[in-house]
Design goal:
Helix content: under 10%
Number of helices: 1
Shape: globular
Radius of gyration: 17 Å
């Protein structure tokens, strides 16, 4: 997996398995995370709250290994339906040709919830949000791109049944690799199921067109579990494999957590 794909996979993330169902603290909204899946949720962090999400992912492709940590996503609730976002990650690649390691470029962004969808099943009335992000050339020598890389994401979610949810993302990024620009499209479809009041699970398909400047398209199947420790802390684990493409990773596995607190 390329460092860009690894970051995207990590960055984790569906409603159902990621805390879409209510888990209230004192005066808090339900805990909703953007990990562990690729699909981002359309929900925003409540005003005055900070939410930390992070984890570790191991990826193997042929004889090459990647270690991705801490996959940091800091979400800051400013006003209703608006949050600021900061993402940072460190990547170590143990490759046959040459090892690489260092920080990836810092990502800044915001999420705006545009539409509050139907609480009942209605494919024409999903929750909808837009996420706008841009990278800054702050990474280590192995992964820094001198040109900012903008990206826009549209996040959708539907309540299919009492315990079942569906999520999807449609994304566009204007990326840079080795100083050369290219367009990348990506998308996802995630099905989440609430096992108990604390346990959730999901299955997902997502892909990139293309995955890198000169590379082929890539797609993936993955799934995982979440465990709600308390109203403001969630643990997760996931695993996935490349699909329909020999260039996709043989497999990836990861663990992580999400923690929020009331800041003001």
């Amino acid at each position: 997996m390329t460092h860009r794909t690894s970051r995207t996979v990590a960055a984790l993330l569906l409603l159902g398995a990621s805390g879409w169902w209510p888990a209230y603290g004192a005066g808090a909204e339900p805990l909703v995370t953007d990990r562990p899946d690729f699909t981002e949720s359309p929900e925003t962090v409540a005003p005055g709250w900070l939410q930390f999400e992070g984890g570790y992912t191991f990826t193997q492709r042929d004889e090459d290994n990647e270690h991705s940590v801490p996959e940091l996503l800091l979400r800051v609730g400013l006003i209703e339906r608006l949050e600021l976002r900061l993402a940072l990650n460190y990547l170590a690649v143990d490759a046959v040709e040459a090892d690489q390691q260092g920080l990836e470029d810092l990502t800044l962004g915001m999420k705006i919830k545009l539409v509050q969808g139907s609480e009942d099943f209605d494919l024409t009335a999903p929750d909808v949000a837009i996420i706008v992000e841009i990278t800054l050339p702050t990474g280590g020598d192995d992964f820094r791109e001198d040109q900012p890389q903008p990206q826009i994401k549209f996040a959708f979610a539907w309540a299919l049944a009492d315990r079942l949810s569906l999520g999807s993302n449609l994304n566009y990024a204007y990326l840079s690799e080795g100083g050369e620009r290219f367009n990348q499209f990506s998308g996802s479809l995630t099905l989440g199921y609430k096992l108990t009041e604390r346990w959730g699970t999901y299955v997902e398909y997502f892909g990139f067109v293309p995955a890198s400047k000169d590379g082929p398209n890539e797609s993936f199947f993955d799934g995982g579990f979440t465990y709600l420790v308390n109203d403001n802390l969630q643990l997760d684990a996931r695993a996935g494999v490349g699909a329909f493409n020999g260039k996709s990773p043989d497999y990836f596995v990861g663990v992580g957590l999400a923690w929020r607190w009331h800041a003001w």
